[in-house]
Hints:
Blueprint: H1 23-39, E1 41-46, E2 58-61, H2 68-78, E3 84-88, H3 89-93, H4 97-103, E4 107-109, H5 113-128, E5 134-136, H6 156-164, E6 168-174, H7 194-206, E7 209-214, H8 230-246
Parallel strand pairs: 1-7, 2-5, 2-6, 3-4, 3-5
Antiparallel strand pairs: 6-7
Amino acid sequence: xxxxxxxxxxxxxxxxxxxxxxxxxRVLMVVDRGLIALTGxxxxxxxxxxxxxxxxxxxxxxxxxxxxxxxxxxxxxKIGVNPRFMLAGGLLDAPIMGPALKACGHLRVDRRSANVGxxxxxxxxxxxxxxxxxxxxxxxxxxxxxxxxxxxxxTGVARMALGGGIPVVPISQWGxxxxxxxxxxxxxxxxxxxxxxxxxxxxxxxxxxxKVHFGKPVELTDLxxxxxxxxxxAHERIMSAITEGLVPLRxxxxxxxxxxxxxxxxxxxxxxxxx
Length: 275
């Protein structure tokens, strides 16, 4: 059983360490906050300890829908941090979007096994320079668990944290799945965009609540990147912390979500689901 935790209110804005966030990315984050404000109501709880700001930091979140990266950006901005993301290589190679994402300072990760080690090394190097935290999804994809609890995920985030001695703040999200449908595996024409557009327009009308909780940093100091099994142990702690923070966000939906997305498969399974 995952224990229930109490979520505190988000603090007032702080004076943050000066970091070199690209201007283009700062402008897009302002646009993002406006879009999220138009789409629904944002509730943020928890915080990032001040002593971790401006230093290497990983933000590890559950992945529940197509809109939750934008909700996460808005939540981070609300507490005064500018996250960068680790993105699939396909996004960074796309015309127009790819160059824009690169200009924002996002990091590339290719899922092909031959490139994973190199991507992790680049990410650790970027993190160790400090500045903006890097947001990551340990699951690697939107959860397909019927109850929308986190899926098993992979140990990449844990290996980055242990390999670079980088703190991990777990983030739990709920509600973004109500704003934009899961949609299609591929988009080949304008009709494939309809599920995304119609679901978003309905969200603008109904105004769902987007809940984001920043948990306490995961305790990983007793684990070592060179010790066999420690990456798995670190991954389990990170995923358990994300799940622990998710429980209070969905107390009235402990089994399956009330909102039904007819386009989302339910073929996944969560090993972290609370008893």
